[in-house]
Specification:
Blueprint lengths: L6 H4 L26 E5 L3 H19 L2 E5 L5 H9 L8 E4 H9 L13 H6 L5 E2 L2 E14 L13 H5 L8 E4 L9 H7 L12 H11 L3 E5 L2 H10 L4 E5 H9 L4 E16 L7 H11 L2 H10 L15 H4 L6 H4 L2 E3 L2 H5 L8 H12 L3
């Protein structure tokens, strides 16, 4: 199984209203759609192809509803512009957690009609991926990965982030994700390394975060910013210990790279399927999200893309060896933490969100 996109492709973020006109394919008036049509933003690249194959074509076959897949990603600014102008021309799209929570808080999203879901599928969807405003698309993770030439089987290996930080016991070149984007960074890992229990990470103590990062900073060869960057580092053997996206590491392992993933204390994240309020085809949009949330359809998706199903019942239809490579496998979920994007979006008395505050702290800290 391969993957040709990185996280920033998969969850492209826009923060300005100017970006709302960046996708001409979705900026037309809502009246251009016929009542029986459905316009779905399906992401780009390999992810878009997989959505079309696993979801769009089978949905059309089952329902007779014509779906126009748009191989791009919607952003909060675009939804805001469409809803405010009463010109919604997209029925379904994927939003990052942060943007989905923000859009819902502003009243831009249609509530999901969970009454049309089969009981088994509704119960199978992970609770954290099931919100009033949206249903999780797929689950992936930041994981610890080590080079098996440096840390061979049968020899001591780091098993948690405290041991990743322990450069005396586990010497080797390290690489961590950059904090330049604020909402993604080595924050949770730093707190876990400093002994904070997983259930006490939020709200984050930023002073403690950066005090922990001070300890590992001299041992980081590269703070990576994109999936392609860390994939190249792992492919070249330029680091012995890294944190990376599980899909990137899985791809290289399947290609024979001397790597192994440690999923203990991995960090889970996901997008949401959402319906902009004012969708001209809200009924069919509800049916589409219900369809893509079914266990059997998500099993097909997981065979095409190395991302975990949000409906854990999908694992019943996957070979065990394949399922255990995915972030949302029940055994992997037990040892993982979920990113709390609500906390990242919270705004303090200074008018800054926690994401913005982290960006500021990072930019100051990295230059020291």
């Amino acid at each position: 199984m391969g993957i040709s996109i990185n996280r920033r492709d998969f969850i492209k973020v826009s923060s300005s209203v100017a970006a709302a006109v960046a996708l001409p394919s979705i900026s037309g008036p809502a009246r251009a759609q016929s009542p029986g049509e459905l316009r779905v933003l399906v992401y780009g690249g390999a992810a878009g192809e997989a959505v079309i194959k696993a979801y769009v074509k089978p949905f059309e076959h089952e329902t007779g509803v014509k779906v126009t897949p748009v191989t791009d990603q919607i952003a909060l600014a675009q939804i805001e512009l469409m809803v405010k102008n009463n010109s919604v021309s997209v029925d379904v799209g994927g939003l990052t957690q942060g943007e989905a929570y923000a859009a819902a808080s502003k009243g831009y999203l249609q509530d999901i009609d969970y009454s049309i879901y089969k009981k088994d599928d509704l119960n199978g969807i992970a609770s954290f991926a099931k919100e009033p405003f949206g249903v999780g698309t797929a689950i992936y993770a930041y994981v610890m990965t080590y080079n098996t030439k440096t840390f061979p089987a049968g020899k001591p290996r780091p098993t948690n982030w405290a041991e990743f930080w322990d450069t005396n016991k586990f010497p080797g070149v390290r690489s961590l994700v950059s904090g330049q984007y604020g909402s993604e960074g080595p924050w949770e890992e730093a707190l876990l390394a400093d002994g904070v229990p997983p259930d006490a990470i939020y709200p984050m103590d930023l002073d403690r975060v950066f005090a922990s990062l001070d300890k590992i900073k001299p041992h980081i060869r590269k703070w990576w910013g994109t999936g392609s960057e860390i994939q190249q580092i792992m492919r070249d053997g330029a680091a012995d210990l890294v944190n990376t996206y599980d899909g990137r590491a899985t791809l290289l392992i399947d290609q024979g790279a001397p790597l192994e993933i440690n999923r203990n204390q991995s960090k889970l994240t996901w997008d949401f399927w959402v319906i902009p309020k004012g969708s001209p085809n809200v009924g069919n949009a509800q049916k589409f999200i219900e369809f893509v949330s079914r266990a059997d359809r998500q099993a097909v998706w997981a065979r095409l893309m190395p991302y975990g199903p949000t409906n854990v019942n999908a694992f019943k239809a996957l070979p065990d060896e394949m399922g255990r490579k995915l972030a949302s496998h029940p055994d992997n979920l037990k040892n993982s933490i979920t990113i709390n994007m609500k906390w990242y979006g919270e705004v303090g008395s200074d008018g800054l969100s926690n994401t913005e505050r982290l960006v500021q702290r990072w930019n100051e800290w990295i230059l020291l």
